[in-house]
Write a structure and sequence with these properties.
The chain has 164 residues and is mainly beta. 3% of the residues lie in helices and 43% in strands. Strand 6 and strand 7 form a beta hairpin.
């Protein structure tokens, strides 16, 4: 499992804007990829407490995986309208959520599902294919109580064992 630690340049330029505490962690947990079936990838979270905003772009190999939908939303007011699917045919999905109360999200238990992404598996999965963060078009940013915090994204290879 590959870990990517992302710190926004803003955090270094203005350290007073960075929230304290553990990084918010996102993990892409998948089911086995079988050609001709629907694969579900659960985006799970850890240290997801007091979060006021989340935005990022996910990317995947579009020749192998065809986006169909998002489901199983784990936050208040989170639904399909928080996702931009305009670039899904080219393997990108943008996500943006904010806590309208600005009080911070309710604490989610470790390994709680934030949402699931559903794909049609079109062909054999290339070795090393992953669902990962992309800096474009929506850069990764998470805030806790409106202060930017650090993020860890753990991804799994999209082929292989049933790991859901």
């Amino acid at each position: 499992m590959k870990k990517i630690l992302l710190f926004l340049p803003l955090c270094f330029a203005f350290p007073q804007l960075r929230a304290q505490g553990n990084p918010v962690q996102f993990t892409a947990k998948k089911e086995k990829s079988v050609v001709g079936t629907v694969q579900t990838v659960a985006i799970r979270v850890a240290d997801f407490t007091g979060v006021t905003t989340v935005q990022f772009t996910l990317q995947w190999p579009s020749a192998t995986f065809q986006f169909t939908s998002v489901s199983d939303f784990g936050l208040p007011d989170l639904d399909a309208t928080h996702f931009n699917t305009t670039l899904a045919t080219s393997g990108k999905l943008t996500f943006s959520w904010d806590d309208v109360t600005t009080q911070g999200s309710p604490p989610l238990s470790p390994d709680a599902v934030l949402f699931r992404i559903n794909f049609n598996v079109l062909g054999p999965v290339p070795p090393g294919a992953t669902l990962d963060l992309s800096p474009t078009p929506t850069p990764t940013e998470v805030t806790r109580l409106l202060k930017v915090t650090s993020v860890v994204f753990n991804n799994e290879n999209l082929s292989g064992c049933n790991c859901n």
